[in-house]
Each structure stands twice: as C-alpha cells, then as structure tokens.
Amino acid sequence: MRPVFSTCFLVAFPIACSDAIAAPFAVPHVDLVSIDARTTKTALKTTGAVAVRVPGLAQASATAFEGLADCLEGDGQEALLVDGTRRRTIAARGAGFDSVCFDDEASNVLRRAAFDAVQAVAVALDGGGTTPLRGDAADYDWRGVVDKGRHLEHVHAYYGPSKGEALEAHVDEGVLVAMVAGEGGSLHITLPGGASHELRWDVDSAVLILAGDSSRYLGNARPAPHSLSLALSDNEARPWYGLMVLPPDDALLDGERFDERRARRTSTITIGRSRSLTAVDPAATCQTQDGKDGIFCWLQCLEVDCAYGAVCLDDNDQVVPEDTHCEGHSFDNCSPVCVDRSGSLSNSSRSREGGFCRGSGQDMHMDGFRSAFEESTPPCINLYVADWTLSSVGKYVGGMFGAFFVGLLVECTSFVRKYVHRRRRDMSWARMGLVFLHFVQSVLGYLAMFAAMTYSIELFAAVCLGATTGYALLHLDDAPAASTDPCCQAQDDLDASKPIPTRVTADCCGDVEAS
Fold first, then answer.
1. Contact between residue 489 and residue 446 where contact means Cβ atoms under 8 Å apart
2. By mean pLDDT, which of 168-172, 215-219, 328-332 is the weakest?
3. Which uninterrupted H or E stretch holds 198?
4. What was the pLDDT predicted at 114?
5. In the prediction, which pLDDT does 326 show?
6. Residues in contact with 40: Cβ distance below 8 Å, sequence separation at least 6, in sequence order
C-alpha cells in the first residue's frame, strides 16, 4: 500500500505544483472597424482589459519606436524604478510632444490609433448599466468623458539591466488607459480572484485598453490592477506609448471636483511608484454574498463601511496583499481599516472592523477551534450551505439549536430502527422501513459530523450535547453501541433479538470485536 501511495504522491505533486503557477491571461480582442460591443463590455466589466486591433498599427509602431530609446537618452525626465531600471519619459497634454523623438508621421498614426481605440471602447460601454458621472456643469457618459476629459500621453524608454518587477501592482488614475508596448517586458494583471497573471495580446497589431480607477464611477468596467516586469540586459531598451483619459475637471468624485482631487493627490505621489492608501484598492474590491461592498483580506471578502475606502492591514500597519495569508494564519493578525478623505489612516478610522463575525462565511475555521464569543472577532461560519451564514448572535444561537437537534435525531433514529427491527416479523414493509431508516441515520450522522468539523466550539458542543441527551432519554437500558461515531452508528446498532456474530465489521470504523 505504501509504494502505491508514494507513486501516486510523486505523480500528483508535480501536477498540483504546475496548477499553482498562474497561466497567462489571454486578453479578449475586438476589431476597431467593426467593434463587438458585447465582447468589449464583458471584458471591461469582468477583468478590466480588452485589446483593439487597429489597421496599420504594426507598421506605425515599428517605425515610431525605431531609435526612440537612443533619442530619449538626451531628452525627457529620468526616474529610477524599484528594480534598478532607468526610465526616461516625455509627455504631452492634449497637444503634441515637444520633442523630436516622437514627432513624425508614424508617431501621429500611433497616437491616432490609440485615441480611436479608446473612443470605440467608450461607445461600446455606453448603454445598460452605465451610471452618468455627475459634474458641476453637466453629467457625462463614457463618450462624454472621452470628449471632455483631459488626455495625457506618455512615451517611455526603459533601459536595462532589469531585475524583475519594475512597477508594483497599481491602478492608473484615469478612466481608460490605452497602451502600445515594445518587446522586452511583460505586463501582469490582478484578476478578480486576487491571482496575478501575465497578459497576452497581439502586441504588434492591437492597442491594449485597461480600465482605470475613475471607471468605477461610471460602471460597466472594473479597474484593472497591473504590474510591469522587465527582462532587459545591460544594452537593451524597451519603448512604450500610453494614452490616459482623465475625467473632466468639474466631474464630482465622492463629492469632490476631479481637478481639486488630482491636485491634492499628485502633490504626494512619487514618480514610478503606485499610491498605497488612497481609497479602496480596486484590486481588492469585492461584494459579499449579501451584495454589500467589501475588500479581500486574508483571502476573504470582508464587508467594509468606510466613506473613503479601506485597506487590509496587519498588526504592524503594513498593507497585506489580497491574495496572501496574514502572518499567523489568523484573522486576529489582519483586518480592514478605513482611510480618511486624504487617503491616510486617521485616529478615528484606526479601529478594526466590528460586528459579530468577519467575512462572507467559510465552512470551517482554518486555525483550530474558535469561539464566536471570544474577545477577537473570528470569521463567520457557513453551516452546511453558503446561504446559512451564522453572521449574528441570533443566527449563531439558531445554528447551535440546529446542531443540537441533529445530534438528538441521530439517537432518535437509532431508537426507531431498533423498535422496527424487533417487530419486523419478516414483513416486506418493515424491511423497506429499516432500509429507509438506515439511510436517514447515515445522513443525520454525516450532518452531525459536518457541524462538528466547523471547528466552532459552540457547534461542536451542541452536537455532542444533543447526542448525549438522546442517549440519556432513549438508550440507557440498551447495551452500549460498538461506536460513538454518529456516521458509523447506523451500521453498529445491534439488537438482542438478532444473533450477534463473533466479529462485527463497520465500514467507516474498522473491525470491532463483539463482547
């Protein structure tokens, strides 16, 4: 048996490990000349990314990027990224680039392709589910934002050597971001489940469109957190072009004009680094099973009630990524914390999330037995099904009564089985009744086991107390059963009127010697 097990383990382990490595994410593609509105809307709403094929883009980007890195060595602003990569940047705000490095016909074709792609996506997104963006002067739909909002363009050249992740996961501030990239790097996106995947799209012929942070005020799009990893040697460089569409200046975001909001935020943001505590991180947003807003924290969707968003922090006030465990594998070590209007932790918002329990529910505690009434707030428990979340004192007490009666019914069913067995007299209905009662007791036994395996102290105690009460009421005069396991007792109940074999075998309990 051991060699067979070892062989199975050695075969299964590499397969399990390979599945743990996130596969690349293939971005849905649409054509600019006949854009598929349904595909576009679905892609932006679910993952926040879509690629638009534009005729002539391949030739234009190849020509525009040729010699760009060498030209930017003598132009633009330089920044040193976290992995040691140098980046030089030139920018344009609504007009042309004030640089000879990106000022030829091919560059203009590339810029027009990016704008056409953004405009086509905005048209596709307008429709059902869109929430107009309120402004001081007017309300804006997707097309209105693209037409009236600011357009920021950037051209980057990344210079090696590169050592890995050059830009950590972040969400761009705009509504939509269009980009055309050269070779030498990979973009990773954080999908709704929290896992990071490398993006794969037709780099030569398609403009990649990502939803930005401000898209959540319009609906029909999910802000797409993304990071950049580079693989450049000492003498290599990677060109990149991007167009970001910002909301109109008078657009109201959380009651604040966008131009005032942007001025406040950009005064504290360092080039090349993503913002950390400036409202809910869209990478971690989710909805609880009750449809309420929450964020991912310790792999759970936890409800938050914060005016300006929240982050998942550990005891040292360090942000915990939504796809990782907290230190100590316990909810005691991390929880959502509100931020104030400026995106900082304030004294009034430092208190942890309250409530009877945390999260949308799990089928068992992952760190041993827990009490729902302990000083710290444990995660909520789902009893049997996802809709039975014991998220309040009343529901939890009801769950305890339910667990108690399940344990009690196991013993009651056992009593009825014995009664029918004694009076069966080879009647066919009695035989069918015994078979049915065996099934009922098996179901109840496993339900009692599942309640105990939640690792909730109260539910475990309720099951045991129910079974003990049933035994005290109905079985004190009987010989003790061969097993106290409720899932096995349906097989172990013996009657004095039936000859007892010298040896009794129970499927789930092993061999039991008869006395």
1. no
2. 328-332
3. strand 196-200
4. 94
5. 56
6. 28, 30, 50, 120, 121, 124, 125
C-alpha 113/C-alpha 118 separation (Å) is 9
Which amino acid does the sequence have at 393? V
With 0-12 / 13-18 / 19 or more C-beta atoms within 10 angstroms meaning exposed / middle / buried, residue 21 is exposed
380 and 391 in contact (C-beta within 8 Å)? yes
SS3 179: strand
CA distance 387 to 182: 48
- Determine the Cα–Cα distance for residues 498 and 422; give it in Å rounded to an integer: 9
Distance set, CA 257 to CA 144, 279, 363 (Å): 16, 16, 44
**Cα–Cα distance between 460 and 164 in angstroms, integer?**
49
* For residue 218, pLDDT beyond 80: yes
Residue 67 structure tokens? 């010699």
Place of tokens 């200046």: 249
pLDDT digits (tens, 9 = 90+) for 111-166: 999 999 999 999 999 876 667 888 888 889 999 999 999 898 999 999 988 877 88
Q: What are the residues whose beta carbons fall under 8 Å from the beta carbon of 167, sequence distance 6 or more?
A: 81, 82, 227, 228, 272, 274
Number of CB atoms found within 10 A of residue 478's CB = 15
How big is the CA angle at 353 (ends 347 and 354), to the nearest 5 degrees?
110
Alpha-carbon span 510 to 397, nearest angstrom = 35
CB atoms within 10 A of CB 302: 25
Q: Pairing mode, if any, of strands 252-253 and 358-362?
A: unpaired
- Single out the residue of 318, 310, 380 nearest to residue 344, CA to CA: 310
Angle at 273 between CA 268 and CA 277, to 5 degrees: 60
Question: Domains (ranges, CATH) in the chain?
Answer: 24-266 (2.60.120.330), 285-354 (no CATH), 393-513 (no CATH)
Distance, in Å, from the CA atom of 12 to the CA atom of 99, rounded to the nearest integer, reads 57
- Contact of 512 with 505, CB cutoff 8 Å: yes
Q: Supply 367's token pair.
A: 């760190």
396 Rama class: left (phi>0) / alpha (psi -120 to 50) / beta: alpha
- Choose among 433, 411, 412: nearest CA to 422: 433
Residue 131 has which token pair?
A: 């929430």
